[in-house]
Amino acid sequence: MSGVEIRELESFLVLAQELHFGRAGERLYISQSRVSQLLRSLEGRIGAPLVERTSRRVSLTPLGESFLVSLRPAYDALRATVDEARAAARGMGEALRIGFQGTVDDDLGEAIARFGDRYPDCAIDIVEIPLSDPFGPLRREEMDCAVVLLPVTEDDLVLGPVFSRQPQTLAVSVRHPFAARESVSAEELADCRLIRIDGGAPEYWRQAQAPDLTPGGLPIPSGPSVNTLQEGLSLAAANRGVMLLCRSTAEYHARRDSVTFVPVRGLPDSELGLLRHRLRPSAQAEAFALAVGETTGTAN
Description:
Layout: H1 6-18, H2 21-28, H3 32-46, E1 51-53, E2 58-60, H4 62-90, E3 96-100, H5 106-118, E4 124-128, H6 136-139, E5 145-149, E6 157-166, E7 168-173, E8 184-185, E9 194-197, H7 203-209, E10 222-226, H8 229-237, E11 243-246, H9 247-252, E12 259-265, E13 270-277, H10 283-296
Parallel strand pairs: 3-4, 3-5, 8-12, 9-10
Antiparallel strand pairs: 1-2, 5-13, 6-13, 7-11, 7-12
Domain HTH lysR-type: 4-61
Family: Belongs to the LysR transcriptional regulatory family.
Keywords: DNA-binding, Transcription, Transcription regulation
């Protein structure tokens, strides 16, 4: 196994997670054929197949399963060692400033704890980002990285990892007709006044969080506009409108005396992504991105 390349190991690890050459290539930012080439090279070094391929499915061979169990902790340790060396070279004395939208859920909390254990001398500051300005604080250098709702198509920002895929729910007043429902369809949003997001967020982003039309093309009436999550929840509690939220945020902000959260069928799931500035790389942010990827199982 002399001369093994780290890219071969990375390709195998990602393919073992995805069990799909196309998706593995997307995560690695290489072509499907390149993933196959790297895997064949690794199998040639080992001397036996690690993956079974058919026209319908991809699966690990027994040797591949055994190899994965042994490789994963060794690879993670290697990545951590390299990251620690890089951080030491660049300096990790300054604080890591993390912005977030919604809530710090279990995965994000674990990633913060992992980073803190790995770099105990690096202080960690956590600041909530207003819904109305998801990208501004990072561009103004008020933070090193930011956890924001997707989609993100900003050229000056680096996206990844992407994690916390969640169904969407509708925050409604306990007095609202939907409050007693087990779920509502996306088309029924046409019967609501949907709370919008104010401020300087790009239109494509605001539309993703509070669309003007249902998937079937029905117009959704506009409710009041807000800058923050708490403003939106307060207006929903007052029955001034309804607000779309991901399930984890809804569960965290459960206020059964005034607001209830009803699952919405027929909308794309909500996702979070970690953002860093492309032109102002930060050793702290890069190390935290690795911690998030490890915690959420999305590390490349």
